[in-house]
Design a protein that fits this description.
This protein has 5 helices and 4 strands, in the order H-E-E-H-E-E-H-H-H. The chain has about 150 residues and is an alpha+beta fold. The termini are far apart.
Length: about 150
């Protein structure tokens, strides 16, 4: 039996509820017609000594990469981050996984908004000024930006 079959999908859900992040990334881009570029991103960051957990999650989701992070300047121990940025992996692996195994914490609200953003990507609206503005609007309510009692 391979290792990825051992990790429970609900374990991944719990880890994501606690340490995961669904993000809409928008940056300036010199060669894009509208001057901006948008991407969806899913990530989980842990201390480097927990890297085997991220490797199991990576195998289970069958996508993404693990990158090392150096926080020496803060006096922190090294960290690692599991990152999924390929849009096809987001659309056809990450989103279906969390639809099948729903998040139960406040991260579930971020995921719902992330899915709305993904719909704009599917419709290629992220390539338009109006679509970028819609993504910015969705992003306003994600992660720490959401009102505490809203």
């Amino acid at each position: 039996m391979s290792a990825y079959k051992i990790i429970s999908p609900w374990y991944i859900v719990g880890f994501t509820d606690g340490e995961g992040c669904f993000a809409i990334l928008i940056s300036k881009h010199k060669t894009k017609k509208i001057g901006r570029d948008a991407n969806l991103c899913f990530e989980i960051e842990l201390r480097a000594d927990d890297k085997p957990i991220l490797e199991l999650i990576q195998k289970r989701l069958n996508c993404g990469r693990i990158v090392g992070l150096n926080y020496d300047r803060y006096g922190w121990k090294p960290h690692v981050k599991f990152v999924v940025r390929k849009q096809n992996d987001i659309l056809y692996k990450v989103i279906p996984f969390f639809k099948q195994f729903p998040l139960i914490g406040k991260k579930g609200k971020d995921f719902e908004l992330f899915c709305k953003a993904a719909d704009l990507f599917r419709a290629k609206k992220h390539l338009t000024e109006d679509g970028i503005n819609q993504l910015l609007e969705i992003r306003e309510f994600m992660n720490n930006r959401r009102p505490m009692f809203g």
